[in-house]
């Protein structure tokens, strides 16, 4: 292409018409001859200035030019070549003669004249002209600046480029010349057919101006002004869209860079900068004229939206020009309107809540980082309202701005609610001073800078100091905060030196009396030994000053009551000494700052420890008095290693004993095991330094997993308690950590202990950290490694059981393998449980991410490739549609399986007779194992079943047991599933032969008892799972129930409870009772294993199975039996690590299908005394009258609980409360009800924040409050429609109810006959509905406000946010009711339904109605519509991606839309969804089509509005549609290269046909027609090589 352009330019240069054309123009321009011109050019400028020219020959009149040109035209045959040469000459003349006014006027006249006869192709001439102007500016030294700035929408580098792509200046959105690249443009100028010697006014005078900035600037001004005039002339013709885009690009570049100076000017030499002058003002105005012509609505040559994303409004140095200011103001106005549609109402309140545990997936299944992270912890609206996040944005947020305050709200909320450390790692930027060279790049998704987290941490410190000073017992809060503070410091989120400096400044400048205790010193002592901190202190240039500040925090309590000494006060009294000695070790030169009294206390600690170690008896850590505990805590900060060794010695002090000889041990084998002792108590562990806890955890790991002696249960329990007590600081992924220390760990007996520890102690901790998936992958590797090994039953079944629990604990999408390639490594059992878990997750919580929706189908296919199971219709009907549709067409292969059994039955039965006859030779076992075919081995149990014939004693159980133990775990599983199929088939056949069903079931139960209990030949949990998966057979579940009813199992469950201790194991003082291996696990699992169990038990293996049995019973509509099973096994489920999640999910999964009696039974699984249920909840769920549903105050109380616990608190909340008031602590337990002794009442409201181990499920107290509210809603015997109606009524009346009631006024606001300035939604008149609605006036507003700690206005807006959050957690049945109720309220609003209102009145009303509720509440102008839209936005922000699909229902319920006011409301509802829909193509396309259809209701071809509507009234909606299309095309915030997707343009072209022609005209650029759309004309798929 470039070579063709050069060849063409060279041809023009030597074309014979060149000289004649130049001579003709010279005559009319009044120029001298070429020879004189050459002499003149050779003269120096100074000589030219001295020459005085006499009378010149006057040029002919302009009117004669066209006649002369036509005469010249007739002399040449190739008219196209002549036209091209003429354009080239004209371009050169424009560049050279623009400063000469008469000549410039003639050039403009000649262009108009030639255009009139069609001799100027504006689509080629104008881009070439602009490129040449750019080149001319570059030759004077200014071009590098002039053309660097703007490009509109560059399709790709080969089609659209800026005219000077090498410019060092940053580029602002724009389009370059579509005709030729920058290189080609310069080549065209340099090879112009017009030589400099041919024209008297050559280029050299222009170049000579480079040394004169003022003269150069004036010349450029004139050149631009003439170019603008020529462009305006060209715009009178119908130009191509690409030409319009190129023109706009150059105009915007000129405007943005209007004040750029010459590169290379030495500003230090005193040269004055040129200032705006008349010529500048004129070209600015001409340039603005061009822009206005381009975007005028009549022609719509370029959509006005291109100005919105151009960056023109952000000129750094705006000239004092009214015309430019006017266009910038208009851009700002329309940009603000587009941004408004993108943002939610009360956008500044949209902070993440840590009441939900949805995690962000930052990598694709292949492990590659995702290009666009949709769910960062917090986002900020950009120029056009798009949500932005990331490091650059976080650093650019100014302190004190609204975004800064919103970030701090989120961080303060996090410090109160202690979300997962995984969240902190993703959200926080590493402090720059701590970054390694490998971490110099931006942190994906991180949005909080170290300055933000430092300020939030200081705020939390000050808050806790104030609570402490008010004599509130908040030691637990300090412990939790110290754990998080240690984690943040160690990971580099806090700059230690900066923290000390700012905290000291805050204390100095603030209330001096706030520092009354040593808590800050204690807090710093926790981190003083971290490597980052010690390095910072050692390298600090202001080391002495920093040390002085640290020491300034020492505040010993000299007035302490000696009679009220506890461990905490002793620790705080001595901690200064410990820290002083530590700092002294860093810097011995600070001796003068040390307090002698602190050094003396250090000696007291040493003396106390010497007395303890000299004692004849070891310190009894189980029974320490307060003083001893406090002194030992101090010791942990001073000399951690001796303290650690002392605790280890105490744990092992009971000594060792040889493991008793068992049947599984060879006579020569000896195993040593620690004698049992008591684990270290939680009160003692809680006060130890984190440094000591880390050392102790390391030592315990050495003993547990790498030692030669079998550890005691007390040591295992102590280790678990350590990890639970400091979940942030001490957590470690065990497989990774331990394999690094000992690669052979998986081959040692300790791996069994590790799996037990994970399965029965640390499962909630891993879920809290978001590491359950990683753990699942690690355990899957073990399963894959041993599932084919003979005899590895115990380890395999333990790993499989752990994997079951992990899969069922995951409540977000997961892949069974890290990549979607190849079959899954799961067992058949795990494959089936994975389907169940996915179904529960999708149905109860939705699919959170777009990627997960894409991966679901391949994931299901990957699972079903290796799984032979076919789900029953009763199970499928409860599956979510996404899974049900994938599984319904699955072929049932059971028929083929029965055929295979029938073919092998004869051989199998013959082998079984030889193996299992009472007189069978034991040596035949090895013969069978060596010579039997693998396909026959899977039928061993089925064959034994047939031979039993109801008489299990008739077979040789010893041989059968030995063979099954010698099988691989995979073969045993296959035997179980095959046996279940055969026995159910056998029962069907026997029934056909006339046998009684009861007898057959009794025989089946007896036979299975033989397998499970009599000889313990098969694992019970797998057998039960196999049976419930055959619920398509009517007898399978009956057999399951008969097994659950047997006394053998129920006795094992009771015995398990007695041996295990209470479910809250961390409170159990011990000693724990170890159960013998064979008694705990049975013969099959314990056969040749010798390692004793710790927590494992056959009953414990039932924990994931019982909930699945309950699910299957409910699916089969036998809820009475489900109730009975729960009643019997509730004591066992008390040990379920995730029983709260089980209750919440089963209520959601079967919502609408559960009888009240079963709901009550399900709730008893929980320890209701520890759940913050509402006081009136029991009477509501036990009400026998369905017509009576809870009052509004009940639902308002639920919302208040969420405001107090789940919604990030407002900054002003703490300021409006007294510092000593416990309501100032948003982390306190719920204040949404009065104190009560009822078992349904709140727990320990005065204790404040609770530790992680107290809320392991769901994870934090914040999550507990939200999930408890969900459980209450799902348990109520009230239809979803009434619940939603009550919640919505509270929302729309919330401001008038709270504000007016607190002022002693009624809740309603009277309405006059005229349209009010702000149509209030608080009145019943505004509803204009005939049906009765629950009144919100029953709420005691004053009581609510006082219990919240907020003002009325603040509380009313936060109640809206809380309601949206709550509704988003409920099943989709509630969502559809919300859409119905919301649309009804909007349509019934009286001023919208009144057809007599003018457009102006309605626009005013809509403007007020859609104000942010926070603003409206301040002025008491809240509206029903404003509140309901804010509710919808809050609801949308908390919805998972999948549940956004039905959001269209609300718009469909609003149709047909009959007014612009209603149209605006529809756009305002759906607009904020755009950032999330842009990544889901099908949903985005549906939404876009819906918006076009809604617009067609008002502006359609066939619409008949009551009054005419002008297209100009919806200019903002037109802009928004352009923005939506480009946003989706980019897949994120619109950028320089953003272009719409072809599929989207195609859709727009189709649906646009519904609109009126004038509306279509404004949207014409969203079509696929390159002749009318700048987007289509520059789209690479539509115009691959635009020319």
What is the strand and helix layout of this fold?
Elements: H1 2-13, H2 17-29, H3 34-42, H4 45-50, H5 65-73, H6 79-97, H7 101-116, H8 122-139, H9 143-146, E1 150-151, E2 172-173, H10 182-190, H11 204-207, H12 213-234, H13 241-256, H14 278-295, H15 305-308, H16 322-342, E3 380-381, E4 387-388, H17 391-396, H18 402-417, H19 421-427, H20 450-469, H21 475-490, H22 496-509, H23 519-527, H24 531-539, H25 543-552, H26 567-586, H27 596-614, H28 626-638, H29 640-651, E5 656-658, E6 672-674, H30 682-686, H31 690-705, H32 713-725, H33 734-741, H34 750-760, H35 763-768, H36 772-786, H37 793-809, H38 828-845, H39 850-866, H40 873-876, H41 881-888, H42 894-916, H43 924-931, H44 934-937, H45 940-948, H46 957-966, H47 969-992, H48 997-1014, H49 1020-1028, H50 1036-1044, H51 1047-1060, H52 1077-1086, H53 1105-1115, H54 1119-1133, H55 1139-1149, H56 1156-1163, H57 1177-1181, H58 1192-1205, H59 1211-1216, H60 1261-1275, H61 1280-1302, H62 1341-1348, H63 1352-1369, H64 1372-1388, H65 1390-1393, H66 1399-1409, H67 1413-1419, H68 1424-1438, H69 1448-1454, H70 1460-1470, H71 1474-1477, H72 1481-1499, H73 1515-1530, H74 1542-1551, ...
